[in-house]
Amino acid sequence: MTSMPMKRQRAIVHMLTESPRGADEVVRLLSQAGFEVSQATVARDLEQIGAVKMKRRGKLAYMLPERLGKRDQADERLRRIFSEWAHAVDTSGNMIVVRTPPGSAHLVALAIDQAKFPEVVGTIAGDDAIFVAIRSNLPPEPLALRLREMLSEH
What we know:
The chain has helices at about 5-20, 25-30, 40-50, 70-85, 105-115, 140-150, and strands at about 50-55, 60-65, 90, 95-100, 120-125, 130-135. It is an alpha+beta fold. The protein has 2 domains: about 5-65, Winged helix-like DNA-binding domain superfamily/Winged helix DNA-binding domain (Arc Repressor Mutant, subunit A), CATH 1.10.10; about 70-150, Gyrase A, domain 2. Helix 4 packs antiparallel against helix 5 (about 105-115). Residues about 65-70 have low confidence and may be disordered.
């Protein structure tokens, strides 16, 4: 069974995928969706999913980051997101398959992309699965092992 904070955070990720939103709007939309939330709860959730503030038409809004400037930040963000949102890692040919809860794959795929692993050609995210393409001359197992280690960090 999925915990209420995880369901709420998935709803926020879905909202922010559609467009950047102000914290008040996130609170209002969550309330309309049946979640009992406060401004403080939403602020914590936004921080935990890695949302960033930006100015939009003169107002502050939150969005999911498209890219991070520093490699260390991307690695740290990947570890945090992967340990919270990824469930399983498997390999097939030169692919790694990462399983996530429904509606969460794009968030994890973005973090993998931002980590800029040299062996990764790219990712494709569905609803609850990510295909990570590894360069054809490299085995996927070393990266899969590193990703599996991140699973056990939570």
